[in-house]
Amino acid sequence: MKNWTICVILLSLTSLVYSQKPAHLTRPSDSLNPDQFFNTVEQSLRLFYSDYVNSNKYDSIINALNYEANETPTFSDDVYCQRLADMSQNSPFHMDCNKSTLATIKFFATQRRGFARIVLGRSPLYFDMFKDKLAEYGLPIELRFLSVIESGLRPQVKSKAGALGLWQFMYKTGLYFGLEESSYIDERMDPDKATDAACRYLKQLYGIYGDWNLALAAYNAGPGTVNRAIKKSGNKTTYWDVRPYLPTETQGYVPNFIAAAYLLTYHAEHNIIPMEAKIHNAQLDTMCLKQGTHMSTIANMAAWDLVEIKELNPIYKTAFIPKSVKGRCLTGPFEKINLLVSIEDSLYYVENQWYSTVTTPIPVLIDTTKIVDTTQINVVDTINVNYQYYKVKAGDNIKNIALKYGVTVEQLMEWNGLKTANIYVGQRLTIKEAAVKPKPVPVPVKPQPVKKYYVVKTGDTFSRIAQRNNLTLGQLQKLNPGVKVNSIVIGQRIRIK
Asked: N or C end of the chain, less CB within 10 A?
């Protein structure tokens, strides 16, 4: 009887606490110490948030809802829950609307609006590539938001535990998924390769648990930690049932993910304007270098900011791009990459001239915020290029290109490492300068007009001269701009053609 009385009291208290809350907020497993959770969130933001917290730079995106610049809209819990429900309908993720999720959304929508602006501004640099990779592996497109809470879309971010890059790989995990590290490179900071590794890892985790929220928890805490939590829960199979047995940080991980997905979907409704992004992923191109090259050489040859080179190529630990059998690649804006491609051999010539005494560059880590470019030499126009390049156009074939340049098909294939004679539109072919140069296409020479003059005689007037030579007065004046038409004299030469 005593136990029954206690149960009645507890049920009454529970009913009282949640009497003013929607039914979807009453999950018994929805427990979390708010102070502990928000401290965890703060730690995850601190590495990249501080640089931007005072920035007032806005981009040109029009706020369709016409909120005041400083207005922070608020909504009822029912509105948040309805939006999350709408998102869940088009997603394999369960965008649960509970106390922790709502608290996280409100926290970012009010206290950390700057962070949302930053990641929104940086998203054009990575989201298209994320979508392509996720589609390649058959993974939900919503997983692109995972990098937001892992790194704030900053590939150089390193956690206190040593996790690095957009997807925050630990060294051993990165190594397991094929991410190389040396004195000069760390592929955990390579956006493309790290994203590929993250896709494989997430697919593997989902295969273990069959629940995306549990897969996210395992991505954060490791499968071993999640497996122990599942065992403690009595072998429950969903994240929210297992969540009370997970570490505090991981308890906040899925709500954090849901909040990121929500805010990046409904940022306009919250009057959160993306920060201006300097460059979009679609504006970038890549070239692979044939030899080790210093970024300072590249910066000077292409008149390219050294800090931007480093920022767009975070894989490199130093300001040196090392030689590799498979070739190390450089990412940059179209115009910079196209210029470097056109002067590639000059680039290597200058590199060898400047660094001829350095056989192995010393791997000194650089602080890109303090780079000072002291080289003032402009060598772009002073170096002779040893190769010519031809960009394949529609209708081209390798035989015709060989004939045009007076070389053999075999030579073209050898110079370009071609195993077959197949080429494609846009392909860049190398033609050695030692080969016969292409025959110049004769350009018709426009003949220069022959000038003809008339000598003024007795009784001539300017208008009479024009009429006599089948010209209008205006035409004759145009041919003789310096002549005073009312003051011509006998013997004066007037141009008539």
From this structure: N
Measured distance CA(41)–CA(149) in Å, rounded: 9
Select 453-495's CATH number: 3.10.350.10, 3.40.1790.10, 3.30.1850.10, 2.30.110.10.
3.10.350.10
CB hemisphere CA count around 368 (13 angstroms): 17
Return the exposure string of 372-400: e unless at least 16 CB atoms fall within 10 Å of the residue's CB, then b. eeeeeeebeeebeeeeeebebeeebebee
pTM of the model: 0.60
What are the b/e assignments for 308-329, b being 16+ CB within 10 Å?
Answer: bbbbbbbbbbbbbbbebeeebe
Name the 3-class secondary structure at 294.
strand
Between the alpha carbon of residue 223 and those of residues 201, 204, 207, 236, 480, the distances in Å are 11, 11, 12, 15, 91
CA dihedral angle for residue 11, residue 15, residue 16, residue 21, rounded to 10 degrees: 150
Q: CA of 266: how far to CAs of 96, 105, 211, 259, 453, in Å?
A: 16, 11, 25, 10, 78
Cα gap 180→164, rounded to integer Å: 13
Q: What residues contact 333, with CB distance under 8 A and at least 6 apart? A: 279, 283, 284, 285
387-432 CATH choice from 3.30.1330.30, 3.10.350.10, 3.40.50.1580, 3.30.420.310: 3.10.350.10
* Max Cα–Cα distance, the chain, nearest Å: 142
Half-sphere exposure of 25 (CA within 13 A, CB side): 18
CA-to-CA dists, residue 64 to 73, 272, 423, angstroms: 14, 11, 47
* Residue 288, C-beta contacts closer than 8 angstroms, at least 6 positions apart: 327, 328, 329, 330
Sign of the CA dihedral 194, 195, 197, 201?
positive
Q: Which tens digits make up the pLDDT trace of 247-264?
A: 988 898 999 999 999 999
> What pLDDT, on the 0 to 100 scale, is given for residue 267?
92
Place of tokens 């029009």: 62
Render pLDDT for 345-359 as a digit per residue (tens, 0 to 9): 888 888 888 876 444
> For residue 342, what are its two tokens?
């056109």
The arrangement of secondary structure in 22-265, i.e. its CATH architecture, is Orthogonal Bundle (1.10)
